[in-house]
């Protein structure tokens, strides 16, 4: 996966395979690392595998 494919994958919120563009993806929660929560993704069409990394980006406080 090159940088351009990565950017497009993130821009599409991980809904499409970065290799073939399929929306038939299987995503399973993996381990939590210091760099973020990992998810293991696999394309059901071209069967390529990759990891998604999720990090907490912001917190908003509900003022009452
Ligand atoms: Zn694919």
Q: Would you tell me the overall average pLDDT?
A: 95
SS-derived structural category: mainly beta
Percent in helix: 10-25%
The kinds of small molecule bound in this structure are: zinc ion
Rg is: 14 Å
Uncertain residue ranges: none
- For the largest sheet, list the strands in their spatial order: 1-2-3
> Which percent band covers the strand fraction?
35-45%
Number of E-state strands: 3
Largest sheet: 3 strands, antiparallel
Distance between the termini: 45 Å
Shape: elongated
Helix count equals 1
Question: Into how many domains do the coordinates divide?
Answer: 1
Name the helix and strand elements from N-terminus to C-terminus, one letter apiece.
HEEE
What can you tell me about this protein's structure?
- This protein has 64 residues and is mainly β.
- It has one domain.
- The chain is built from 1 helix and 3 strands, in the order H-E-E-E.
- Strands 1-2-3 form a 3-stranded antiparallel β-sheet, with no helix packed on it.
- A hairpin with a 5-residue loop joins strand 2 and strand 3 (49-54).
- The longest helix is centred in the first third of the chain and has 9 residues, at 3-11.
- The model has no long low-confidence stretch (mean pLDDT 95).
- Bound molecules: zinc ion (ZN).
- Zinc ion is lined by residues 17, 19-20, 22, 43, 45-46, 48.
- Zinc ion binds at residues 17, 19-20, 22, 43, 45-46, 48.
């Amino acid at each position: 996966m090159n940088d351009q494919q990565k950017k497009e994958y993130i821009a599409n919120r991980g809904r499409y395979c970065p290799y073939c563009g399929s929306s038939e993806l299987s995503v399973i929660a993996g381990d939590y690392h210091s760099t973020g929560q990992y998810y293991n993704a696999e394309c059901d069409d071209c069967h390529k595998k990759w990891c998604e990394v999720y990090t907490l980006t912001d917190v908003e406080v509900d003022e009452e």
